[in-house]
What does this fold into?
Amino acid sequence: MLYALLYALNNEFKIFNVIKYISFRSGLAAVTALLFVIFAGNPFISWMKKRQFGQAIRNEGPQSHLKKTGTPTMGGLLILGGAFLGILLWSDLSNVYVWCMLLILFVFGLVGFLDDYIKIIKKDPEGLASRWKFRLLFIGAAFFSYVSFVSADGDGAQGILYFPFFKNLALNLGPYYMLLSVVVIVGASNAVNLTDGLDGLAIGPCIVNCASFFILCYLGGNIVFARYLQIPHVPGIGELSIVCAALMGGGIAFLWFNTFPAQIFMGDVGALALGGALGALSVLSKNEILLVILGGVFVIETLSVILQVASFKLRGKRIFRMAPIHHHFELLGWPEPKVIVRFWILSFILAIAALGTLKLR
It folds into this structure.
């Protein structure tokens, strides 16, 4: 909104010419989201405490987590509030991709809110029934996939799946690409949700991923950079750099309150929304496969759960002491902060590896 208002003054006041640059507006969006979360954080936490809207802890989890019972949750509302403010103020709202991202953040955030609400009000650690959760997520992802599919343009045309490491390897899936998009978005959403089990564990890699997609979207939206690096050029995708910056700014500020020992948890409202956003960014920027590397921490967490369940059902034995795998390391005797920071380091290494593929084509 402010972007359109200030840019309209460009002819009279040349100083507003800087507003047209995505990099400048990305910085403004990040600062806007960061300041919103920083200033709203303590009042929100106090409000949640007064109403005893605290987290219910599963009894089957690590016993050290039981002391966290009652810690305020639904902190994802802070991140989403800051991100929405930054995006709406500084993005070009005529860009369809911006609205696609706002759709994912809203729908997945709403599903997460319902899940958290049931946990808080009914004191039920299970939350929203899985069948309803997945149905709602699939509906939201399907609508997003259809809109983004029919809106695609440029070198990154509809239905094409691009492979990193290769210059000319691509697979035209046609309409089936929409199905792939749904799987990627819902899968990424639940992967982040599984990772959100320790103080700051999920938000750290989310910040790293948003920073990486900031670069990928900026390069993919610039035809000169895209052709030089031989990556898909998607006209208009550069505007999503502002979305990434807003999420990154909100995430960094939220980490102030969520770092060990956490004053507030992100909750499903944050984890599902951020995971869905990362999946959507990978789809829109044509980096679905690269997300497996970039979001490697989330992939490892998800695979640990799948392997644990499969092993127990097939062999009657568990591979890990507890899944997701971050609990396994806790039960091995690693202090919680050590697990968290080492997973952050791994996420940073994987991000460097993923971005390094830009020159390996």
User: Anything to note?
Assistant: The two ends are 39 Å apart (CA to CA).
